[in-house]
C-alpha cells in the first residue's frame, strides 16, 4: 500500500505529513507530529486514553485510519491552554484533585470538552455518559465528575459576567 | 545513621497544629503537567533509530521444548535478530533475591521447558512493531506436552506432577512448607468455645489493569552504558536485578523513570527491562519492549488466587477464643513476589483482633498458571475478605424473612453481623498479645460508631436492601529486609532546595507529599522545594514504591536530610546576621529571622548566595530510612516488624435484585485512621480511588478463562475485563482520623494499599444482610447470588 500525503488542522495549525494507510490518527499524532498527550492505553478502542476531537466530535484516535480523515480538524490536549493559562476544565481538574497517575487525563478532558461544547450546563448523568468510554483505574471517577461539573459552572459564571458587563448583549 | 530511633521524629509528631505546610491540601505538583499533556511517560520519548521487540510465547501449560526454529521469523522483512535464552548471560533469576528470598527459579527466556501458557521463549527485534509481531508469530516451537497442574490443592496431592526443579510444588521456608503463626493452644480454645464455625473462601486471579501497559525503552549511551527509560515502580530494584541478569556492573546501567500510568504492584516484576537491555546491547540501538493490552491482560502477573479455610471458636457473648486458618496462595509457575505475599498473609491472618489462640498455616503453591505477584494489598486483600465475612454471619442468627418479602418491611441499617460494639471486645489495647504482631490497636474501629452517617436515601425500596460492615488493618512498608530509602537535599544559589531521590511517584502523589515534608522541616515555602526523581544516576537508593511504603519511608529520609540542610542554612544565616544560630527561626515565608526581633531577618536566597560565594559552605543534607531487620521465627511466626499499622472501617449499603442476582453498591462510608494526613485531599484521593477498586474486585474482576475445561479465552482487553464505569460508582462519605505514628514522617502511616480491602467484605456482609446469601467466592457474580437464593428456598428459608 502506497504512502499518502495527509493534511490536518491540528489545534488550529495546518500540518502535512506522509502516512501509510494502516497508520492510525493516534500514531500519526504521536509519531509524525510529536503530540504525545493522547495516550496508547489499549490500541483497541476500549480505554479512551487516546480520545481527541475530530471536527469537534470525540473519537478514540487509535481506531481512526489517518488517511481517511485527510483535511479534518483535530483538537488535542496540547491546544487547550492559551498563553500558559489553563482553561476551565484544566483548572478544575487541578483544583479538584481529579488527576492521579495522569495517563487517562488527556482523554477525560477531551471527552469533557466535547460535552461542554454541546451542553454547557450538563446534568450529572450527562457527565457520566460523556466519560463512560474513558477508563480510570486510580480515582474512582468521582473527582473527575466533580471537576467537569465545576468547569461547567466556571464557564457559565464567566458567560453571565460577560453578559452583565455588556448589558446583556453577548 | 542506620536505624530509626522511634523518638527521632518526636518533635515533628507532637508539633500539633503549628504546621506551615503539613496537613494542608496543597495542589499536586504534577497536576499542571498532567492537564496540559506535558507529563512525559516512557512511550512519549522517541529516540532515533528505535527498534521494537515482540515475543513468541508458549501456547502450552506445561511442556518440554524439543526444538525452536526461528528461520521463518528471521526471513520476515525488517527483522534484525531473534533472542533465545542463550543470549541471556544469567538467564535464571527471582526478583526477591535482593532481600534474600531465593532460589532463582524463573528463566528470562524459557530453556528446555515451559511452565505456563504465555511464557516467553523467543524475543524478536525488528524495525517496526508490525514486523516484530509478524516474526514472533512465525517462530516454530516443537513441544512434548507434560501433565499440568492448575489447582493449588491438586498441586499438593501426593501423586501430583512435580513442576518445580526443586522437587516440590510448594515454596520451602526454613524447611517448612508454610509460613506459620502460633499463639496459645488452639485446640484448647476450640474445646472451650460455645460454638465452632468453619468456612472456606476463594478468590479468582485479578489483573492490575493499569491504563498504561508495562514497558520500557533502552538507549545505548555510546560509552558502554545502557539507559533504561522505564515505568517501573522501583528504579533500583529494576537496575539491580537487570545488572545481575546481564552479568554486568551496576554502573553500566541507568534507570530513568518516575512517571507511571498506574502500577498497583504490577510494575515491580522486572519483566521487560532485561530482555530490552540484551537486545539494545546486541544491536547497539535503542529498543522498545512494551506490553500490548492483550499481553498485559493475558501474561502479566496477577493478584494471586487464594483459598482460605477458617475455623473459629466463638463464645456466646461474641468473643473469638480460637482461630485456625489454612491458606493456599496460587503462585502460578514462578515465585516472583508470592513468597513475600504469603509471609504477609500469615502475619495478617489473626486480623485486627485479640484472639488468645491462633494457628495459621499459609502455603505458597506452584501451579502451571500465569505467575502471580504483588498487587495492591497483596497477601492481605483476600484475607481481609475472608476474615471479615467470617466475622459477620458466624454469629449465627439468621434473621431474614422470606426471599422476596418487600424490602420496605426491613429495617434499614440493621447489622446482622453484630454491632460494632460486639467487635470492640476484640480490639487489642497496647500490650495485648496478638498473633504475630503486638502493635495493633483498633482506633478506627472504636471511633467508627461515632462518625458513620446513616444513609437513608437513594433507594427505590423495590429491591432487597442491606448494610454490611468490615474493619481492616494494614502494615506500613515491607517487613522483611531493611526496607531502605535515602534522600539527598541541597540548596541552589537562588534559595531553592533540590531533593534528589530515586523514588517513583505512581500517581499517589509522592512527589508532592515529600516536598511538603521537606518544606515543613526546612521552614521554607512549599514552592521553594524541587523534587528530582527518579534517576538512578542522581538519586540515592530506594527500595521502590510498593507495600504502602513511599510516604512513610521516603518521607522519613527527606525529613532527616532537610534537618541537616537546615542546620547549615541557619549556621550561614547566623554568620550573616551576626547572631547565634540558636536564636534563629523560620516562619515558612522564605525568611530566616531572629527570635524576638522579627525585623532582623534575611531571605534564604541571600543565605544561599553567602554560603556559595562568601562562606564556602554547602547547604545540603543526607537522610535515610532503614528499619531493623526482623525475620519471623519459623515455628511460631513471631517477629517484630517495627512498623505502624493503619486502620480502616467501611460500611456498605447495597441493593440486591432477587430476580437477576445483580448487586448494586449504593454507598460506602469509609473511616481511615492514617496516622497523620500530610495532604488531606490526596489522602482522600487514595481512600476513594482504592474503595472504587475494592468494589471492582468484589463485583467484577477475574482473569479466569471463560471456558474452564479447556482454559481458553480469558479477557484480553477492557471490554472483556469488567470494571465499574463512572455510572457504576457508589456514593462515598469518608472520614480521616489522625493518631500520629511514633515512627512516621510527621506521624503519617502508609494507606495506599489497604484502601481497596475493606469494601470487599463490607459488600459481602451487606448482601447477607439484604437477602441472607453468604458470598464466599470473589468476584460476587449475579449467578452466585441466585444460587444462594435458590439454596435458601430449598432449605425452606425462602418460601
From TrEMBL, chain A:
Ranges of residues in domain 2Fe-2S ferredoxin-type: 4-80
InterPro entries: 2Fe-2S-bd, 2Fe-2S-bd_dom_sf, 2Fe-2S_ferredoxin-like_sf, 2Fe-2S_ferredoxin-type, 2Fe2S_fd_BS, Beta-grasp_dom_sf, Diverse_Oxidoreductases
GO molecular function terms noted in the UniProt entry: 2 iron, 2 sulfur cluster binding; metal ion binding; oxidoreductase activity
SUPFAM superfamilies reported for this sequence: 2Fe-2S ferredoxin-like, CO dehydrogenase ISP C-domain like
The protein's name in its UniProt record: (2Fe-2S)-binding protein
Keywords attached to this entry: 2Fe-2S, Iron, Iron-sulfur, Metal-binding, Oxidoreductase
Tree of life domain: Bacteria
A UniProt-annotated Pfam family: Fer2_2
Keyword Transferase: no
From TrEMBL, chain B:
Ribonucleoprotein found in the keyword field: no
Organism the protein comes from: Solicola gregarius
Molecular functions (GO terms): iron ion binding; oxidoreductase activity
Taxonomic path: Bacteria, Bacillati, Actinomycetota, Actinomycetes, Propionibacteriales
InterPro entries: Ald_Oxase/Xan_DH_a/b, Ald_Oxase/Xan_DH_a/b_sf, Ald_Oxase/xanthine_DH-like, AldOxase/xan_DH_MoCoBD1, AldOxase/xan_DH_MoCoBD2, AldOxase/xan_DH_Mopterin-bd_sf
Name this protein carries in UniProt: Xanthine dehydrogenase family protein molybdopterin-binding subunit
Record's compositionally biased regions (Basic and acidic residues): 391-401, 414-440
Keywords: Molybdenum, Oxidoreductase
Domain Aldehyde oxidase/xanthine dehydrogenase a/b hammerhead stretches: 36-147
Residues covered by region (Disordered): 391-443
Pfam family, one: MoCoBD_2
Amino acid at each position: 500500500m502506497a504512502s499518502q500525503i495527509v493534511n490536518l488542522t491540528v489545534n488550529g495549525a495546518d500540518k502535512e505529513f506522509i502516512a501509510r494507510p494502516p497508520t492510525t490518527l493516534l500514531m500519526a499524532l504521536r509519531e509524525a507530529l510529536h503530540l504525545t498527550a493522547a495516550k496508547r492505553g489499549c490500541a483497541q478502542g476500549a480505554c479512551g486514553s487516546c480520545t481527541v476531537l475530530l471536527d469537534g466530535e470525540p473519537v478514540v484516535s487509535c481506531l481512526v485510519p489517518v488517511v481517511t480523515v485527510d483535511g479534518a480538524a483535530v483538537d488535542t490536549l496540547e491546544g487547550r491552554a492559551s498563553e500558559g493559562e489553563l482553561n476551565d476544565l484544566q483548572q478544575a481538574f487541578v483544583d479538584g484533585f481529579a488527576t492521579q497517575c495522569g495517563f487517562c487525563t488527556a482523554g477525560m478532558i477531551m471527552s469533557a470538552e466535547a460535552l461542554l461544547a454541546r451542553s454547557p450546563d450538563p446534568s450529572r448523568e450527562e457527565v457520566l455518559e460523556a466519560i463512560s468510554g474513558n477508563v480510570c483505574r486510580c480515582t474512582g471517577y468521582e473527582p473527575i465528575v466533580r471537576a467537569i461539573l465545576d468547569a461547567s459552572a466556571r464557564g457559565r459564571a464567566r458567560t453571565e459576567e460577560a453578559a452583565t458587563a455588556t448589558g446583556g448583549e453577548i | 545513621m542506620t536505624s530509626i530511633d522511634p523518638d527521632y521524629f518526636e518533635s515533628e509528631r507532637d508539633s500539633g497544629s503549628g504546621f506551615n505546610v503539613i496537613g494542608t491540601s496543597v495542589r499536586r505538583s504534577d497536576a499542571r503537567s498532567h492537564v496540559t499533556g506535558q507529563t512525559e511517560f516512557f512511550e512519549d520519548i522517541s529516540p532515533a533509530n528505535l527498534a521494537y521487540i515482540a515475543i513468541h510465547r508458549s501456547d502450552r501449560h506445561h511442556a518440554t521444548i524439543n526444538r525452536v526454529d526461528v528461520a521463518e521469523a528471521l526471513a520476515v522483512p525488517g527483522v534484525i535478530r531473534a533472542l533465545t535464552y542463550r543470549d541471556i548471560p544469567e538467564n535464571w533469576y527471582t526478583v526477591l533475591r535482593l532481600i534474600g528470598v531465593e532460589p532463582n527459579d524463573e528463566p528470562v527466556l524459557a530453556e528446555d521447558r515451559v511452565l505456563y501458557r504465555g511464557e516467553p521463549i523467543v524475543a524478536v527485534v525488528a524495525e517496526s512493531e508490525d514486523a516484530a509481531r509478524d516474526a514472533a508469530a512465525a517462530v516454530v516451537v516443537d513441544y512434548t506436552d507434560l501433565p499440568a497442574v492448575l489447582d493449588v490443592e491438586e498441586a499438593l496431592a501426593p501423586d501430583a506432577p512435580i513442576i518445580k526443579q526443586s522437587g516440590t510444588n510448594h515454596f520451602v521456608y526454613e524447611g517448612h512448607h508454610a509460613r506459620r503463626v502460633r499463639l496459645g493452644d488452639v485446640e484448647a480454645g476450640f474445646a472451650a468455645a460455645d460454638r465452632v464455625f468453619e468456612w472456606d473462601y476463594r478468590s479468582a486471579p485479578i489483573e492490575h489493569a493499569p491504563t498504561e501497559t508495562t514497558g520500557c525503552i533502552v538507549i545505548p549511551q555510546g560509552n558502554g552504558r545502557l539507559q533504561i527509560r522505564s515505568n517501573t515502580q522501583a528504579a533500583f530494584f529494576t537496575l539491580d536485578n537487570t545488572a545481575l541478569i546481564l552479568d554486568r556492573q551496576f554502573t553500566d546501567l541507568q534507570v530513568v523513570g518516575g512517571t507511571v500510568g498506574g502500577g498497583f504492584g504490577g510494575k515491580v516484576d522486572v519483566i521487560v527491562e532485561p530482555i530490552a537491555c540484551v537486545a539494545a546491547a546486541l544491536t547497539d540501538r535503542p529498543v522498545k519492549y512494551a506490553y500490548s493490552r492483550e499481553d498485559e491482560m493475558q501474561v502479566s502477573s496477577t493478584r494471586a488466587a487464594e483459598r482460605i479455610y477458617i475455623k473459629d471458636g466463638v463464645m456466646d457473648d461474641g468473643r473469638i477464643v480460637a482461630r485456625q486458618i489454612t491458606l493456599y496462595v496460587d503462585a502460578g509457575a514462578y515465585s516472583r513476589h508470592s513468597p513475600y505475599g504469603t509471609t504477609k498473609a500469615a502475619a495478617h491472618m489473626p486480623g485486627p483482633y485479640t484472639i488468645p489462640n491462633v494457628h495459621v498455616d499459609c502455603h505458597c503453591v506452584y501451579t502451571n498458571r500465569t505467575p502471580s505477584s504483588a498487587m495492591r494489598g497483596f497477601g492481605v486483600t483476600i484475607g481481609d475478605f475472608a476474615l471479615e465475612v467470617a466475622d459477620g454471619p458466624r454469629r449465627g442468627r439468621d434473621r431474614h424473612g422470606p426471599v422476596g418479602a418487600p424490602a420496605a418491611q426491613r429495617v434499614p441499617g440493621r447489622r446482622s453481623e453484630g454491632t460494632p460494639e460486639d467487635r470492640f471486645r476484640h480490639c487489642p489495647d497496647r500490650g495485648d498479645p496478638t498473633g504475630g504482631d503486638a502493635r495493633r490497636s483498633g482506633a478506627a474501629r472504636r471511633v467508627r460508631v461515632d462518625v458513620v452517617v446513616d444513609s437513608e436515601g437513594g433507594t427505590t425500596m423495590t429491591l432487597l436492601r442491606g448494610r454490611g460492615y468490615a474493619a481492616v488493618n494494614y502494615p506500613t512498608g515491607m517487613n522483611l529486609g531493611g526496607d531502605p530509602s535515602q534522600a539527598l537535599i541541597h540548596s541552589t544559589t537562588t534559595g531553592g532546595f533540590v531533593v534528589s531521590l530515586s523514588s517513583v511517584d505512581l500517581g499517589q502523589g509522592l512527589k508532592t507529599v515529600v516536598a511538603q515534608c521537606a518544606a515543613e522541616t526546612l521552614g521554607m515555602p512549599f514552592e521553594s522545594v524541587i523534587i528530582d526523581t527518579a534517576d538512578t544516576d542522581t538519586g540515592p537508593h530506594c527500595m521502590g514504591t510498593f507495600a504502602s511504603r513511599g510516604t512513610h519511608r521516603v518521607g522519613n529520609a527527606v525529613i532527616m536530610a532537610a534537618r541537616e540542610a537546615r542546620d547549615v542554612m541557619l549556621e550561614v544565616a547566623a554568620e550573616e546576621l551576626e547572631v547565634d544560630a540558636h536564636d534563629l527561626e523560620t516562619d515558612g515565608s522564605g525568611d530566616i529571622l531572629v527570635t524576638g526581633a522579627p525585623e532582623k531577618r534575611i531571605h534564604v536566597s541571600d543565605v544561599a548566595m553567602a554560603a556559595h560565594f562568601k562562606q564556602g559552605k554547602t547547604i545540603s543534607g543526607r537522610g535515610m530510612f532503614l528499619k531493623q531487620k526482623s525475620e519471623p521465627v519459623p515455628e511460631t511466626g513471631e517477629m517484630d516488624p517495627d512498623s505502624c499499622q493503619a486502620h480502616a472501617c467501611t460500611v456498605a449499603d447495597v441493593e440486591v435484585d432477587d430476580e437477576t442476582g445483580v448487586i448494586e453498591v449504593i454507598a460506602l462510608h469509609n473511616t481511615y485512621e492514617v496516622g497523620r494526613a500530610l495532604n488531606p485531599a490526596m489522602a482522600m484521593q487514595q481512600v476513594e480511588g482504592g474503595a472504587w477498586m475494592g468494589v471492582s474486585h468484589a463485583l467484577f474482576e477475574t482473569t479466569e478463562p471463560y471456558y474452564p475445561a479447556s482454559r481458553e479465552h480469558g479477557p484480553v482487553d477492557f471490554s472483556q475485563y469488567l470494571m465499574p464505569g463512572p455510572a457504576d460508582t457508589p456514593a462515598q462519605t469518608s472520614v480521616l482520623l489522625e493518631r500520629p505514628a511514633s515512627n512516621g514522617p510527621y506521624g503519617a502511616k502508609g494507606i495506599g494499599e489497604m484502601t481497596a480491602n475493606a469494601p470487599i467484605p463490607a459488600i459481602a456482609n451487606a448482601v447477607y444482610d439484604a437477602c441472607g446469601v453468604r458470598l464466599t467466592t470473589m468476584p460476587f457474580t449475579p449467578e452466585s447470588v441466585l444460587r444462594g437464593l435458590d439454596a435458601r428456598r430449598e432449605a425452606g428459608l425462602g418460601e
